[in-house]
Design goal:
The structure holds two protein chains of two kinds.
Chain A: E1 9-13, E2 25-31, E3 34-41, H1 49-54, H2 58-66, H3 73-88, H4 94-122, H5 126-147, E4 156-157, E5 160-161, H6 167-193, H7 195-201, H8 209-214, H9 219-223, H10 231-234, H11 255-279, E6 296-304, E7 307-315, E8 321-327, H12 329-341, H13 349-355, H14 360-363, E9 368-370, E10 375-377, H15 381-388
Antiparallel strand pairs in A: 1-2, 2-3, 4-5, 6-7, 7-8, 9-10
Helix pairs in contact in A: 2-3, 3-4, 4-5, 4-11, 4-13, 5-6, 6-11
Chain B: H1 5-10, H2 15-22, H3 27-48, H4 64-73, H5 85-103, H6 120-141, H7 145-176, H8 181-190, H9 195-198, H10 200-213, H11 225-228, H12 238-263, H13 275-295, H14 302-325
Helix pairs in contact in B: 3-12, 3-13, 4-12, 5-6, 5-12, 6-7, 7-8, 7-10, 7-14, 8-12, 12-13
């Protein structure tokens, strides 16, 4: 190894690293203990999802969309079915909209709760990590009772939802949430008062308001920098237009504020689920839709737990989609993340990285660009197969 | 050398002394204690976190640390091409042997240690420092980025906690008027008072220093797993890692034994309770305390830790010594 004097060293994070739960590579240029440069290298978990969308029927794609992410699976299906319903012009029954909302908020609860645990683990606070993940199980079990599945709920279908929430189920949700709310308040208090955690989170990973807007950050990362931006409020989908809530944001711009935003969003989600359960209308669960979708295109937006999720669909009148595009919130947060990391200590890298709640496998897309000639090209499925299966 | 009367004359060890060195309270007991305390640490840590901890190997998972040790011994021992081979091979042995050596001067089964001598407190302090030097060398010799960062962090940590730790160990020595650990322990039993009641500040400083020495949260900076993989231990595997692990366990025994001897009256027979039982009770309490502390904090950053140690812990340690000089707590 060549090491000069007063030079920087390159510290690799990933593709395999304990701080990253998924394979992704960041190379840090480090001067002493301070990061002076970041080179992200994305694409380790590229799965060809968008191509796979094109060779399946619309109904099969629901299951594919579900599997884009292992945590915000409902957000992806909601986004997908909304895009298709938009092209079809299908009117989703109001009860289905409410059920979608309830599941989405329960999903936000367990996703944020997972994040709180990871953030605690990144700074060595394993006890809080174990406690939050234990209580997260209650929400997972709840979702299992409602939908039959812990992770991939398979609740959405084009034109509505597949399962109903019974009054029995509703009372079960209420009682679970009562217990969960108490715990969440406790953990939120711990994270805002525990001195060792504050020392690691306060003033760390500063992302200024203007930078956050300029670099296109989304979700709690953006709201932690004091920007009130939430698809649920700005462009209401499902039943969000009928549920009163206020967008939570904090001016602190650091990791602590991202934590507080998430904790408060959890408490807010609990209230939203309660409101939705109280006001859920009766009626059908779904409308029938034709298997073939007329030509057209649609963009659908959903506020996933990690931020704004965007799906684009282009149909051509057959039973298969012509082009599909997913823009996951993690990808939108990467430029802001790189900006945030510069100037931080090596020891703070994991927490800042975790601060955007990265979900790399949802994010990885591929495009071929020759950086010198700016030439772009596309591989066909046959070429892809030939080059990967070797 | 089997033969020779001369050998017998030089070596004046009786069979009982050999038994003492090898079995009780020597090597065998120390190994049993090392694995037992690791089990206590893991089990209690797990229970604090609402987990089960070791469960399957032996009753209540008691043999899990032994099983881990044996398993690691059988694993492939990978030596990186770029490493300093000699240092890389020697550091695990040192890390394992140093705390073991120090444990012989600490009173365990009777009121004096096996090879107690005047000034052995200094010897133990030296061992504590050498342990960190070994850690630094281990990280440095592995020629891995994570290893080097971990080693440098360990050395930086030592520079900040070593002086308060030393001062906290000297406090009871001043009170007892001796630099022998056994003498300090005996002074406490003859005066019918434990140093913890005389010098509570010193006790707190010692516990904080030992948390750093043992690389427990919030001072597990040199091996912060989410930051630098396994820190200075990243490149070690197989037998070498096994030696590091058992060395860490022995260090835990040493740390708890030192606290017990200096501040809790040492291995002192209390009426019908034999010395070894009193030693066990005291050290287990110390281990539980250390484990509890490591469960309730987040990890500091290295600069925060260094600043905190120099700004707060050192003045507090000096304050305790000043109090002793004024006759309070002796």
């Amino acid at each position: 190894m060549k090491m000069g004097y007063a030079s920087t060293i390159r510290v690799p994070f990933g593709p395999q690293h304990p701080a990253l739960k998924e394979p992704e590579n960041f190379i840090f240029e480090v001067d002493g203990d301070i990061v002076v440069g970041v080179t992200p290298r994305l694409g380790y978990v590229h799965r060809g999802a968008e191509k796979a969308f094109e060779i399946r029927t619309y109904v099969q794609n629901i299951y594919l969309a579900e599997r884009v992410c292992g945590i915000c699976s409902h957000a992806h299906t909601t986004c997908y079915v909304q895009a298709v319903e938009d092209i079809l012009g299908a009117q989703v029954p109001p009860r289905a909209k409410y059920i979608r909302t309830i599941i989405a908020e329960l999903e936000r609860l367990h996703s944020h709760s997972l994040w709180v645990g990871i953030a605690a683990h990144e700074v060595g606070f394993d006890t809080l990590f174990m406690y939050t993940w234990r209580d997260r199980e209650a929400i997972m079990s709840l979702l299992e009772e409602i939908s039959g599945n812990r992770v991939h709920y398979a609740m959405n279908t084009i034109g509505g939802v597949r399962r109903d929430i019974t009054s029995e189920g509703a009372s079960k949700i209420r009682s679970t949430l009562d217990a969960f709310e108490k715990r969440t308040k406790e953990y939120a208090k711990i994270m805002q008062t525990e001195r060792t955690f504050l020392k690691r989170a306060q003033g760390v990973g500063i992302l200024k308001k203007q930078d956050a807007i300029d670099l296109g950050a989304v979700g709690p990362t953006l709201r932690g920098s004091g920007v009130k931006n939430d698809v649920r409020a700005g462009d209401p989908y499902a039943a969000y237009g009928e549920i009163p809530f206020e967008v939570i944001s904090h001016e602190g711009c650091d990791v602590l504020c991202r934590t507080i935003v998430r904790c408060e969003e959890m408490l807010q989600s609990i209230d939203m689920v309660r409101f939705a359960l109280d006001h859920i209308p009766t009626g059908d669960l779904r409308v029938k839709v034709p298997p073939a979708v007329s030509a057209g295109e649609a963009v659908s937006r959903v506020e996933a737990p990690r931020g704004e999720l965007m799906h684009y669909a282009k149909s051509n009148g057959t039973t298969k989609v012509e082009r599909y595009k997913i823009r996951s919130p993690t990808l939108a947060n990467i430029p802001a993340l790189c900006k945030t990391l510069i100037g931080s200590h090596i020891a703070d890298i994991p927490l800042i990285l975790a601060g955007i709640d990265p979900c790399f496998s949802c994010m990885d897309r591929m495009a071929f660009i020759d950086s010198k000639t700016n030439e772009r090209w596309i591989w066909s499925m046959e070429e892809l197969k030939r080059k990967t299966v070797k | 050398m089997v033969d020779g009367g001369a050998e017998k004359e030089n070596c004046e060890m009786t069979p009982y002394e050999v038994f003492q060195l090898l079995v009780f309270p020597g090597l065998t007991l120390l190994f049993v204690l090392a694995f037992f305390y690791e089990w206590i640490d893991r089990k209690f840590f797990a229970r604090l976190q609402n987990r089960y901890g070791p469960l399957y190997t032996g009753p209540f998972g008691l043999f899990q640390p032994v099983a881990d040790f044996v398993k690691l011994l059988g694993k492939e021992d990978i030596v990186p091409l770029a490493c300093d081979k000699l240092v890389f091979a020697l550091t695990p042995i040192f890390y394992f042997a140093l705390p073991l050596t120090a444990l012989f001067v600490v009173p365990i089964s009777e009121s004096t240690g096996l090879i107690a001598f005047e000034g052995d407190l200094i010897f133990v302090m030296f061992i504590f420092t050498m342990l960190v030097v070994t850690v630094f060398l281990a990280g440095w010799s592995s020629a891995s980025r994570f290893g080097i960062i971990g080693g440098v962090r360990a050395a930086l940590e030592m520079l900040s906690y070593e002086i308060p730790l030393g001062l906290a160990m000297v406090g009871p020595a001043i009170a007892a008027g001796s630099l022998s650990i056994s003498a300090i322990a005996n002074w406490q039993s003859s005066h019918l008072v434990w140093s913890i009641f005389l010098q509570p500040i010193g006790f707190a400083v010692l516990i904080v220093g030992l948390l750093a020495e043992l690389e427990f949260v919030p001072f597990d900076i040199p091996e912060a797993d989410t930051e630098i993989v396994a820190g200075w231990r990243t490149e070690f595997s197989g037998r070498k890692l096994a030696l590091f692990k058992v060395g860490r366990d022995l260090e835990l025994v040493l740390a708890s034994a030192i606290v017990a001897a200096l501040y809790l009256g040492g291995a002192q027979a209390l009426g019908p309770i034999p010395a070894i039982v009193s030693f066990l009770i005291k050290t287990v309490i110390v281990v539980l305390l250390l484990t509890f502390l490591r469960a309730v904090f987040a990890r500091f950053r290295i600069d925060q830790m260094t600043a905190g140690m120099w700004k707060y812990l050192l003045p507090i340690a000096i304050f305790q010594i000043v109090l002793i000089q004024f006759g309070i707590g002796r």
